[in-house]
Every structure is written in structure tokens, then in C-alpha cells.
Amino acid sequence: MFSFIVFMFLFVYPCMPFPRKVSWEFSDLTAVHLSFGNQTNELCILWGTSYPIANSPPRVRYGLTAENMNETVTGKTIPFRAGKVTHLHRIVISNLHYGMKYYYQIIKFNTTTTTTTTSLESGSIFNFQTHQSPTNYNNPNSFLVFADLGTLSKSTPYLIQESLNNVYTSVMHIGDIAYDLASDQGQVGERFLSSLQNMISRLPYLTVPGDHESFDGYEHYRHWFSMPKQGWPMAAEKLWYSMDIGLVHFIVLVTEDFISGSPSRIKNQLNWLNRDLKAANLNRSRVPWIVVLAHRPLYCSVQSWSEDCARDDSKVRQNLEDVIFTGGVDLVISGHEHNYERTLPVYKKRVLAYHYKNAPGPVHLIVGACGYPYIVDRIKRTREYWSAFSDSDRRKEMFGRLHVYNKSHIYWEMLRADTNQVVDKMWLVKNKHGPFTFSELFPQKQRARVSGYTNTLQGYLPAAHSKATIIYIYLFCLFSTFTFIYLMKKRLYNFYRNLTNQIMYTLIHYLTVIH
């Protein structure tokens, strides 16, 4: 009897026409990550596989508990080669309830039959927390922010742990992703996104295109990611976007257009930015804060003058500074430079205030310290006067936390990844939001008569001072003049006296020697 059972198990059972098992294991699902759709209650799920799903579009089932994932949604598959990945998949889940925890699982299909099976292996079920209602301002929103993170960066496991230990609304990667997404025929990008899967499969991953994404014409970037108000794959000529998340209107820009883009691309982006800022300012009673995410910074204190942000004729600054100033942008967060720097409120290289309470202009942050393993962009020994804080210690890979507490307070902190030491912090306080104006900057100055209106600081003349002020200045100048003359006379008197004494001493000595 025992021999018969062994014979059936070894020879007969494998030949029976049972439906085959699922032909790809959980490890074949790579780089699973989330992104926001057009609204915060709409999420996109993207992943890659080594071959297409047979006879059916990709599917994801989801629900409010892991045991009852009864809702199913289908999506889209496109062929795209990136390392072992040959196909990318995206599905969109809409009309999610605000402030709820959801569980989801990618459905696996048999490659030879239409039989559907799912894997309940450990780790195959993911979860995410939806954003709070746009009308609920009781809970603050926190964002995990970094730039220039690649496969050589040592901070990746610390960032994942950080995302598990604290409650974040989203993860923001301000350009130069993986170093590079397209390197080694796309294997670097696939490995990088897979290494972040424990974080970006639970939190929406908002990305910004940088110079390293542009090296292959944004091909890998626009296929791997799906950003708000974009199609998929995203259009290479229009990768900028904006989105309201809680009390913040986030704007993502493509700064490479200002370095090497055509005039038409620059014009298109600036026209869109002006329209977007105009609409955002009409909505500031509900969404008061405006934050720009742009890979290349407008300001930096690096030693290398070849960097655009360190030049007086910076292309990025020339194209963007007037627009973001008149548009009332509160904060600009950038990467590209592999260091950390925080500016004072600044415009046209002029410090507008030495504090952050009701700042009359934008504040700029550079958060590229995760790129230290590739290169360190050293800060000059004598920083620029508009620079409030900087750090280029290559031992400190750093990330940022952006806490939006309410309509008037934002708290920013920069932390060392391996120790969670707070390296820098700032409270940005605004009691009034809106476009910045010259009258607010210079309330006691009047504008000179110039031909036409210009958005620069040129054309401002000092207002008439009071008579008392003028008298004080006159007396001070008079006193300084007489003091200078007196000191000079005394100095000349001492000089001639010493010279005369020396001549007399020499003459007497000479006469003594002769006689």
C-alpha cells in the first residue's frame, strides 16, 4: 500500500491535468509604489514584472481589512524594459474614504489558463492610510523630504525606518532618483525602487524630475512614475504639475528646461506657472501655503562657480525669481547641490528680513545631502550674506521633515539620517498670506518715475527723512570730519617732530666724532 502511494505521488500526480500553480512568485512583483492621483482620495499603484499578465489587464483587490478585500479595480499595462522588468503596470483607486487605513493586494494570473489565484505570503498584502479630509485642519500634515538619493546612499534603511516610526502624509524626492533610473539598462532604477518598497508601497511617492532624469530624455522617469494631473506614461514635454495637500499648494517644476530647454518649453512652463499661481492665490483662504519643489536651486553658497545657482547670471533664478516672488511662494525646496543650506527671506540677492515671522519673501532650502557618496558640493568658507545656515559634512547624510501645523505655522527640521540628530530647524510663521509686493517690502520708500512697470528692485528712491534725522546726520558728518582733521594734524606733527629729533641727534653725533 505504501509503495502504491509513493508511485502515485511521484509519477501519476505530476501528469494529471490539474490547473497549474501561479507561474510567478511574489518576488516577480518589483518596485511596488504609490502616488497621488488628481485628488488626495485617489491613489495610483504601480509595479513592474518580468513578463505581461496573460489575457487580462492588471488587477488589484483592496478593502478596509486584510480579510475583506472585496473591491477590485483594473488598470493598464505597457511594455518597458528596465533590468529584469519587461512590463510596467498601473491601476488607479478613486473615491477612497478620507482618514482610513486600506489594505491591497496585486492579483496574480495563471499564464496558461484564466484561473485566478492570489498569494497570501507574508508581505504580499500592502496597506496605506488615506489623507485626512481637506476640510479637517485639526491634525497636522508631515512630509518626509530628501533629494539626490541613490543606490550608493547609506541613508536608505534609516529613511524606511523613519517612515515606519512616524506618521507621514507623503514622501517627496526632489530629483536625481537612483543615480540613475536608466543606468545599466534600467537595472539601477529597478533595484533602487525595490529597495524603497517598504516605504513607497505605503506612502504616496511624489517625485521631481532632475538633471539625471533628463539624461535619457526622461524615458525611465515618465514610465516608472505617475504624478497628479498627468497621463501615463507622462508626457516628456510637460512633467510639471501642482496639487493641494491639506493646507499646502505644492508646485513641482522642471528646472532643466531653464538650463538646456528650448525657448518654447521655457515659455510653456512659465505660462503654466503664472496661471497656476494666480489660481492658487485666489484659493489662499482655504489653502494658504504655497511650496515650490524644484530640483535646481535658485541660491547656493557652493565653492564651484560653475554651478548655475552660484552664478550672478543664474538661468534658473533669472527665469523663476520674479514669478515666485510676485506669486507669493512661501518656501522653495531644492536638491542638486549635495549639501544642506537654508536662506533668509531673499529676493534679487537682497536679504528682506533676518527672521521668519511674516517673511516678506520666499525662503529657500537645499536638501541634497543624501548624495554625498557621489560627490560633496563644499560650502564656501565665507557664506553669502543671505545664507542663514549650511552644512556640507560628508559624514552627515540628511533628510528633512516638513510639518504643516495650521494656516499660520510651518515647522521645518533637517536631521542626520544615521543618528536622527537635528542639524537645523526653523519656524515659518505667517499671519497673512498672498503675493509679495514692493509696498510691503519698502513701506517708507517711494517709487521713482520710470517708463513702464518692472518687477525688480530698480526704481526705488529713499523717502524724505524728517528734519531731525537730517540734522543728526549733518552733525555726525561734521563731527567726523573735524575729528579726522585733528587726528591727521596730530599725526603729522608727531612725524615732523620725530624726524627733526633724529636729524639733530645724527648731526651732534657726527660733530662729536670729528672733534
Structural overview:
With 515 residues, the chain is α+β, with helices and mostly antiparallel strands. It has three domains: 20-131, Immunoglobulin-like (Sandwich), CATH 2.60.40; 135-440, Purple Acid Phosphatase, chain A, domain 2, CATH 3.60.21; 442-489, no CATH class. The chain has eleven helices and 26 strands. It has helices at 2-12, 156-165, 187-195, 197-200, 211-214, 219-224, 256-260, 263-282, 315-326, 438-441, 467-514, and strands spanning 30-36, 43-49, 59-63, 71-82, 85-93, 101-106, 108-109, 116-117, 126-129, 141-146, 170-173, 205-207, 241-245, 248-253, 289-294, 331-334, 340-343, 346-347, 350-351, 363-367, 387-391, 398-404, 409-416, 422-429, 445-447, 460-462. The strands form six sheets. Strands 1-2-5-4-3-6-9 form a seven-stranded antiparallel sheet. Strands 13-14-15-16-20-17-21 form a seven-stranded mixed sheet, with helices on one face. A six-stranded mixed sheet has the order 12-11-10-22-23-24, with no helix packed on it. Helix 8 packs parallel to helix 9 (315-326). The chain is elongated. It starts with a helix and ends with a helix.
